[in-house]
Amino acid sequence: MILFHIGAKWIMQRLKGKISRSFICVDAGVVRRIAVLLVCMGLLPVEAILLAQPEEKTPWPVPVKTVAIINEDDQGLPLKFPSAVFFDKTMDEIYVVNGGNGRINLYGSDYFPRISLGVGRGVDSPNGIFVAGDGRLFICQGRTAKNPPRLTILNAAFFPLKEILVQQFPEAESFVPNRVYVGRNGNIYVAGIDFRGLMVLDGEGNFQHWLKPKDKIWADQQMDYSKLPQDITGKGQIGEGAVAPPAGDNAEAPEEEQRETEMANLPDFLKPKGKEVIEEEESKQFGPVQVTDVVCGAEGHIYILSEETSKIYVYNASEEFLFAFGKKGGSSGKMSRPRALAVDEKRKCIYVVDYMRHTILIYNFAGRYLFEIGGKGSSPRWFNFPTALALDGQGNLVVADLFNQRVQVLDVKFEAGVTLFGSTDPAADTVNKDKQDKPAQE
């Protein structure tokens, strides 16, 4: 304050022409201090701009902004390996499965922790969660010393309503619930851990049937390596202690045509009703795929993700197969180990989180790859084995960043291929048409 007062007085005197050289010589040190202070004050806005630049400049084709980072529970303790997330549209709340503590944490619209659900509410081994419009919570739970694998249903006040022991159902002896979603038709769709097929229950939790997407898979059978040349095996034959080479080859499917002109411009509704088994003579190479995640869209469509095949299988509300898309691989635009998906009805796109490539891939509703964001890292907007994602009420991505032990809320700014489905703004369709209907650069 003293320096500021002296500086103000000096400036006023200088403006009035009343300052003398002797004053300058005597107080030159004070003047230098004032000059430094003024320069520093002037640089404050510049520093703020520089700090904000990394938020806008990203290596991805679209701007990505960090909205929030959640890394504490309701006790103020660090999150431990968050493995699943869900956004409740009705209450504008985020649910996080805190895998390391075996609890479910609840966060408000301000991303502040509110409460957590644990053993006292019947939650001891949560894997996945879904919150219905009436407030009921559907929680997938694994095996513990006291309880078998089950689907736990709580009411809106978090009191237990029902426990569904899934292994009592046909073909479900080894079934462990992992992800759950309630469709528009009222059915409960449950994906198991490394299990082939999707369990379908009615609204009361009674078993109905299995929904089994089929594709080309590598059969679980013992391969005969006894006839391999000696220069391959080293001994002419693999002994009991040797490690056999993996079954199957790694050849990737050839590039498809531009998603057959964006699936003939869809919908009708979300064409076509194709066959899951393409050629009868190859039926021995086809079979039910392992289901990793399931999400139902606003129109009732069912999106089933398989980590095994790196594909998404799309069904209508009547559970009729429509089409599948996705390619397995370790390069851009391909999925190595996809773990979860989310459907963005507003932008008409699908997000897929790739656990091994530490990325989030974005596809339009025709299944055409658009772009991806992320990569391995610990800074905001980078991931370390992400394992789940959801969309909040503002359209932000909520990502369970497993080994960074946090949940990231990201604003990804882009426009997807709305022209495939029409728009309330004809002018916007005209602007986007050329850009969206061009073949993807893969």
Structural summary, described in words:
There is one protein chain. By secondary structure, the protein is α+β, with helices and mostly antiparallel strands. The chain folds into two domains: 2-56, no CATH class; 64-117 and 213-237 and 250-436, Methylamine Dehydrogenase, Chain H (7 Propeller). It has helices at 2-15, 21-26, 28-56, 230-233, 259-265, 426-436; strands at 64-70, 82-88, 93-98, 103-107, 113-117, 126-131, 137-141, 150-154, 160-164, 177-182, 188-192, 195-196, 198-201, 207-211, 214-216, 286-288, 290-291, 293-296, 302-306, 311-315, 321-325, 338-344, 349-354, 359-364, 369-374, 386-391, 397-401, 406-412. Helix 1 (2-15) packs across helix 3 (28-56). The longest helix has 29 residues, at 28-56. The radius of gyration is 29 Å and the shape is globular. The N and C termini lie far apart (63 Å). The model is unreliable at 1-7, 13-26, 43-55, 222-255, 277-284 and 418-442 (pLDDT under 50).
